[in-house]
Amino acid sequence: MSLQYTLLLLFLAFFIHQSLANPHHHHVNFTATLFFGDSTLDTGNNEFIDSAFRSSHFPYGLDFPDRAATGRFSDGLLVPDLLTSALNIKPLSPPWLDPGLSDEDIRTGVNFASAGAGLDDLTSAISNTVPLSRQLAMFGEYAKRLEAAAGGEEEGRRVLENALVMFGAGGNDVIFNYYDLPSRRRKEFTTMSGYQDFLLGKLEDAVKIVYSHGCRRFILTGLPPIGCLPVQMTAATFSDPSARECIDEQMADTHGYNTKLQNLLPKLQQTLPGGKFAYLDITNTVLDMFNDPANGFEETKRGCCGTGLSRWGRFATILLHCARTFLASHSLMPSTLQRECTRW
């Protein structure tokens, strides 16, 4: 087992114990993991819908067993897989839309996330992905199936009460609806702060819906460093690719959103009795890896996959030498090694 993976397991154990465990118990045993969000969490749902946002092709999956592309937007495992495995629940987080799900898959949790989705349903309209509202509807279907798979209403309720729920979305919303395609939301929200409040309202509503089904332990992830993502640096410096630097305004917006999200947690704690809520910082961890030359990566400003400036999806090819030296596997997503190094 690599040092990075060992550190990830140690962090997850500490994070979950400190943030989500019941203070009256010495430890907590999670029964299942459930995931809602975008490509950072999607383990293959988009392979079962008609969308251009798919990754079941080369170069994705190079570090996966048998070098197989599985629908994960990565060279290997995603955070849901690493987290589910670290909790000793099962090795992988299966996508809900997989028709081959077993009762055991249902009892131990599934994944509802969809690459290209966001907290704002409008985000999915451009990519024909599964919007958050539909992900929540799928969760309702899952809860009904869980009752049968678990052997009754009481056992199904126990599984949900002790499940770990993660929400990870928001980046696609600000990129597609505000920065890169501003006509989509700027007419309605004249400031980024106003759009952030709208997104966080959607997240709060989603948490309440999942809570109403009996779930009590939640991880809410902040935005990644939007202004430092390869795709945004490319868009900002298209006429001069050599001038690729993080975009200060977008980074300020990222920090503003994350601060608001952290401020939302006490409200959720107060209004949803028995709930446990933890904020997971992505931005500062990724920025540390961008800025620290000792992080083991040789390239932090370009995606590994691709021959041009657009390095993702079916437009991606592979630079075979870079899988372990590039921070991002493509213009939007970090590589497996970065996922194992970070405190996600």
Automatic annotation (TrEMBL):
Keyword terms of this UniProt record: Signal
Signal peptide: 1-21
Gene3D superfamilies registered for this protein in UniProt: SGNH hydrolase
One Gene Ontology MF term: hydrolase activity, acting on ester bonds
Pfam families the record matches: Lipase_GDSL
Keyword Signal recorded: yes
InterPro entries, per the entry: GDSL, GDSL_lipolytic_enzyme, SGNH_hydro_sf, SGNH_plant_lipase-like
Family label: Belongs to the 'GDSL' lipolytic enzyme family.
Protein name, as recorded: GDSL esterase/lipase-like
